[in-house]
Amino acid sequence: MTDIKATMDALPGLDHRAPLLQIDDLHVEFRTRDGVAKAVNGASFWLSPGETLAILGESGCGKSVTAQAIMGILESPPGHITAGEIRYRGVDLLKLPEVQRRKVRANRIAMIFQDALSALNPVYTVGFQLAELFRVHRGMSRSDARNRAVDLLDQVKIPGARSRVNDYPHQFSGGMRQRVMIAMALALDPEVLIADEPTTALDVTVQAQIMGLLAELQRQRNMGLILITHDMGVVADVADRISVMYAGRVVEEAPVHDIYARPGHPYTRALLESIPRLDLKGRQLNVIRGLPPALTDIPRGCAFNPRCRYAKDPCRQDPAPPAYAIAPHRTARCHFFREVLGE
Amino acid sequence: MFRYIVRRLLQMILTFFGATFVVFALMFANQDDPIQALVGEKQASDSLRAALTERYHLDEGFLTQYWYYMKGLLTGDLGKSLTGRDISEMLADAWPVTIRLALLAVLIAAAIAVTTGVYAGIRRGGLFDNGTLLMTLLLLAMPIVVLAPLAQLVFAMELRWFPATTTKDATPYELLLPAIVLATTVIATQLRVTRTSVVENLRADYVRTARAKGLAPRRVTWVHVLRNSLIPVITLIGVDLGVLMSGAIVTEEVFNIPGVGFNLARGIRTEDGPLVVGFVSVLVIIFLVVNLAVDLLYAALDPRIRYE
Predict the structure, then answer these.
(1) Chain A: nearest CA to B215, how far in angstroms?
(2) Predicted ipTM?
(3) B50 and B162 inside one domain
(4) Do B9 and B143 belong together in one domain?
(5) Least confident interval from A68-77, A81-90, B76-85
(6) Percentages helix, strand, coil for chain B, rounded to the nearest 5?
(7) Does residue A130 belong to the interface with chain B, where contact is any CB pair within 8 Å?
C-alpha cells in the first residue's frame, strides 16, 4: 500500500500550522482567438478546517474557474494562471511539479461537480469509478477497492449499496447520482472539498437532502468546504462565511449573518434585494439592471460601476477600489461602503 | 442483455428475408431466357427445354420460384453454376480466402487508425494532427484501381518484399500486401472518426472529473476517453468489414486471389446468373452476421444501449 502520509509530508514547504487553504491575488485568463478573457482578477480568500465558505456570484463571475485553478484542472490552453498563489498548508500548489500536484488532488483537495450525469463516465459502473481511486492512489487490490467502494456508497446513504455498486450512472436518479459524486470526492479523506453548484441540477426537496448530507459528512470529518453557488437561499443555511465574487474579484467577504443583515457592497445589496420574499408579495421584484461585463472588456475602476446606483466619479477610474476593512473580519471593495452599510 | 440479443436476432431474420427477396426479384425481373443462356450458342431442343423448365421450375409463378429458391438457400443447396460446378462448393472454396483477407485488412486498418486517431485527437491542431490529415486526404483521393496495381508493381515486382500474386492456399503472408491495399481504403475514415470522437470526448465533463481524481493523463486517455470514443468507431469498423468482404473485387482481381470478389467478377462477366445470385445471397447473410456482432460489441461498450 502506498503511504500517502509520507508522500504528503514530503511536499516542499508543508507547515501544519499554516492555513488549510489560502488563495492570494489569483489571476486567470483565457487566451482565445477573440481576445483575452480575464476570468479571475485578483481573487483572495482563505479556508479553515471544519469551515464552510460560500463563494457567491452570477454566471461568469469566475467562481468555477477559481475552483478549477485550485484543483489544477484548468483547461490549458486556453486557460492560464498569470499571477497569484494557491497555498495548501503553506505549500504553493502552483509551483508544485505535476506529479506531486496530482497526489494532492483527491487525496487532500477534492471536488464535486454540478451535473453528476455528465460528470460521471457513462460506460463504467459507479463501483469501477470509485474503486479506481483506491487502486490508483492506494495501490489496493481489485476486491479490497471494491469493498471500499461499497462502504462509501453506504456512507452517502445509497440504499442497497452492495448491489448498486455494479450499476451504471444512468441507472441512478439525479439525487442518488450526486451522492455517488460526493462519495467519489470523499473517498480518499480530503481536507478540502470544493462543491461547484452541487444542487443546481436537482429538485428542491432533493437539494435539501444533499446539502444536509454534505453538512453532516463535513462535520464528521472536520473538512473545509468551499461551496460555490449562485443561490443565496442555500448559502444562508450552511455557510459560515461568504465571499461575493464579481467579474473575477472578491468584492465582499463577511461572516454569513453580517452579510444578510447589513451588506457592505452595492452588488451584495442588489443580490439580496433580488431574492423574492414572502412579506413583499405582490410588489415588483428588484432586479440588478444591466448585465455582468464581458470578460474581454471589464470596465475601468470598479467593475460594477455601470450597474451601481452608488457609483460616482472615483468608481470609474483606475485603480479599482481596494479591499477596505469595513468591520472585524469583513472586507468590501467599495469606496462608498459607509453609504451602503447605511451609516 | 438477453432481451437485446433476442430482439436483434428477430430483426436480423426480417432483414434476411427482405434482402434475399429483393435479390431474387431483381434476378427474376432481369431474366430473358435462362434456358438459352444455359445452353449457349446452339438452339435448345424442345425436349431439353421441357426438362430444364421442369428442373428449374421455370413455368411456376414468381412466389413459387422464390419458395424453391429459399428452400435451396436454407438447406445449403444453391444449385449449379453455368460452368457446371456446385455453387455451394465454389463458395466453400472462396469464402475462407476472402474472410481471411478482409479480417487481415480490418485488423491492420483498425490498429493503425485507432492509435493514430487517438494521438491526433489529443494533439488537436498540432503538427501530428495536420500531418495525418494530409495523409488521409491522399489515401482517400487514391482509387483502389490505381493503388492496387501500383502497390503490386512497387512492393512485389520492384522491391520484392511480397509475392505479386497468391497461390490457391492464400497464406497470410501472401495476403499481406493485398490486405494493406484494402486497409488503405477504409483507414482514412476510421482515423478521422476516431480523432473527432476523441476530441469530442476530451471536452466531456467526465474527463474533468477523471483529472480531478488525480489520475495520470495516460489513464484518463486510454481508460476513460478511449472506451467512450470507440463507440462510433466500432460501428464503422463493422460496416467496413462487411464492405471489404463484398467489395474486394478489384484487389482480388489484381492479386489473383481466388476469393468471393474474384468469382463474383467472373460470374458477372460471363452472365452466370445462378452463381451471382448464390454468392450475393450468402453475402447478405455474412453482412447481417457481421452487423449483429457489431451491435453486440456496441452494447458491450455502451451500457446505456444494453439496458434500453
Answers:
(1) 7
(2) 0.87
(3) no
(4) no
(5) B76-85
(6) 80, 0, 20
(7) no
Helix (H) or strand (E) holding B18: helix B2-30
Whether residues B98 and B61 share a domain: the answer is no
DSSP type of residue A275: S
Contacts of B204 in chain A (CB under 8 A): 118
Do residues B207 and A118 lie in contact, with contact meaning Cβ atoms separated by under 8 Å?
no
Q: B189 and B236 in contact (C-beta within 8 Å)?
A: yes
CA distances from A175 to A169, A178, A199, A336 (A): 11, 5, 9, 43
CATH of the domain at B248: 1.10.3720.10
**Contact criterion met (CB below 8 Å) for A113 and A185:** no
- Name the pTM for this structure: 0.79
Is B190 domain-assigned?
yes
Q: How far is CA B23 from the centre of its chain?
A: 17
The three cell numbers of residue B163 are 509475392
Domain shared by B57 and B173, yes or no: no
Domain count, chain B: 2
Between positions 296 and 315 of A, the ones with CB within 8 A of B are none
- According to DSSP, residue B214 is labeled T
**In this predicted model, what pLDDT tens digit does every residue of B127-149 receive, in sequence order?**
999 999 999 898 888 888 888 88
Whether residues A102 and B212 touch (CB distance < 8 A) is answered with: no
In a domain, B82, yes or no: no
Residue B307 clears pLDDT 70, i.e. is over it: no
Would the pLDDT of A332 be above 50? yes
Interface contact A105-B214, CB threshold 8 A: yes
- When pLDDT is averaged across residues B26-35 and rounded to a whole number, the result is 69
Confidence bin at B276 (pLDDT 50/70/90): confident
Task: Supply the range of the domain harboring residue B25.
Answer: 2-74
User: Which residue would you say has higher pLDDT here, B104 or B92?
Assistant: B104
Question: Counting one residue from A and one from B, how many pairs have CB atoms under 8 Å apart?
Answer: 72
d(CA A293, CA A285): 22
Same domain, B140 and B177: yes
Domain C-terminal end among B74, B106, B129: B74
What pLDDT, on a 0 to 100 scale, did the predictor assign at position B39?
67
Taking 3-state DSSP, the helix, strand and coil percentages for chain A, each rounded to the nearest 5, stand at: 40, 20, 40
B98 plus B40 within the same structural domain = no
B215 lies in some domain:
yes
* B112, B37: one domain: no
Instruction: Give tens-digit pLDDT for A97-145.
Output: 888 889 899 899 999 998 888 999 999 999 999 999 999 999 899 999 9
| Binary contact (A121, B301; C-beta < 8 A) | no
Contacts 24+ apart (CB under 8 A), B300-303: B301/A123, B301/B227, B301/B230, B301/B231, B301/B234, B302/A122, B302/A123, B302/B231, B303/A122, B303/A123, B303/A125, B303/A168, B303/A170
Q: Is B271 found in the same domain as B129?
A: yes
d(CA B144, CA A210) in angstroms, rounded, equals 60
Task: With cut-offs at 50, 70 and 90, classify the pLDDT of residue A1.
Answer: very low
Q: Which of B44, B74, B104 is the endpoint of a domain?
A: B74
Alpha carbons A323 and A336: distance in angstroms, whole number: 12
Residue B80 lies in a domain: no
Contact A110 B212 (CB under 8 A): yes
- Distance CA(A174)–CA(A204), nearest Å, equals 12
